[in-house]
């Protein structure tokens, strides 16, 4: 009887802690932050712009599993989201300074998207399949890492987690519908979408740089 009561008490404690954690999470959630960070991150991850690369890999006989790509990507991004700030503290770098530097890198990435220039030279990665090079470094790569750490100075972790999940859902839909999107949207529509997101990324990079420069000075 005592063991049963003890187990019931432990279960109630766990449930109360879980409910409290959920309430705190919801309290930190900001729908506008979710929307703005989602647009920003989906532009950096760029699932639409990477459609030709995915098709090219499949034509070479490389098997791509959409759910494996998405699972690996979300694990890498969430891990970096929680450990990235710790790495900055290890090197004694404030998040505002990283946001300025990250904003500059993202600014260069937006120029690539808008002007069709190559600033960051592509690197050949050995291996094939869903994890390398699709999950890393294509989707969950340096650009996404920089973007995540840069915007943690302005967005809550809860909002970023929700926007990341939304981004991965979009990525999954794009991966499973790659051939359909190419057939019905066409290369021109995908090109226009890439340009539109490039302008969004450019605006957000300027906000990151100038906003955090003002905070520093």
The biggest sheet amounts to: none
- Outline the low-pLDDT stretches: 124-128
Termini separation: 65 Å
Number of strands: 0
Oligomer: single chain
Order of helices and strands: HHHHHHHHHH
Shape: globular
Counted by DSSP, the helix tally is 10
Rg of Cα set: 20 Å
Give the count of structural domains. 1
Beta-strand portion reads under 5%
Helix amount? over 70%
Structural class: mainly alpha
What does it look like?
It contains 10 helices and no strands. With 217 residues, it is an all-alpha fold. It has one domain (30-216). Helix 2 packs across helix 10 and helix 5 runs antiparallel to helix 10. The longest helix has 31 residues, at 186-216. The protein is globular, with a radius of gyration of 20 Å.
In short:
The protein is an all-alpha fold.
Map the helices and strands.
Elements: H1 2-28, H2 31-45, H3 51-59, H4 66-90, H5 95-115, H6 130-139, H7 142-151, H8 157-176, H9 178-184, H10 186-216
Features:
217 residues, mainly alpha
